[in-house]
Amino acid sequence: MAFTMHSHSGEFCPGHAKDTLESVVLHAISAGYHTLGLTEHMPRTELSDLYPDEFLPSPEASLASLFPRHEAYLLEARRLQRLYSAQIHILIGFEGEWIRPGCGPLIQTLASAPCVDYFIGSIHHAGGIPIDYDRATYHVAREACGGSDEAVFEKYYDEQLDMLVALRPKVVGHFDLIRLMSDVPDMGADEVGDGAVWARVVRNLKEVVGYGGWLECNTSALRKGLAEPYPGRAIAEEFLKMGGKFTFSDDSHGTAQVATNYARGLDYLESLGVRELWTLERVVADDAESDVKAALVEKSVTIDEFRRTLKVPA
What we know:
By secondary structure, this protein is α/β, with parallel strands linked by helices. Helix content is 38%, strand content 20%. It has a single domain (2-309), classed as Metal-dependent hydrolases (TIM Barrel).
């Protein structure tokens, strides 16, 4: 029962991803996925939230397009969920964008939509500045947060804690994304600085375990040149000591990235002693109305079973 809990399309994430949402669904079916979590990025509310590739035709026009695009995404996701229900189990979600505390109420409002099953709790900013777009932008964030990798890591994990406490997301996205553009991206979080970063990591992991959240093992780190998926080994080992559970994601941004590096990601988890992964299943009563949320059941999938159902080179 292969799956991903994190995916994007070029249709609803233009400039950042490729391909239509339907083509992503069809490719996931051909790859042997049993479950596909659709998680386009949520709309943002400030011009300062935009990435450089969103400045055209104008920042104002790009910002104004985000909420209508989100509504169009939900409609198309619901159509595809119905159309392909016999071939794949589609979960409808979105990727939360915690940039400042004021994002919390918006995320909760978006999550309340009847068709939305879950959202991913993610951090892509520190001090309001993107940390995963490119090195130059990361350096701006680093300077704004104190001028060192250690300082911007501390800021990132403090803001991540704010998100975890406020929203308690079932799926915590790319927990240690902050390392992507850092000076030594493959350094363990326990090796950064004098221990202040690691203390924050452990604190945040305890928060996730405490409310029953899952970390995603996100293989996009591997296609971006990192040695290990998100989260890195030190974090993953600490999370497992606490009894934490993993879900699994390709974080694909188009059909070409569906199931990318899945074999390496599964090998990584097995090297940590992980034997099962967790996903969600929608349970819908036959007489349920469209404006009633589906119930969700947590499901475990063994890594062996995951591998057996995967149909593409991973």
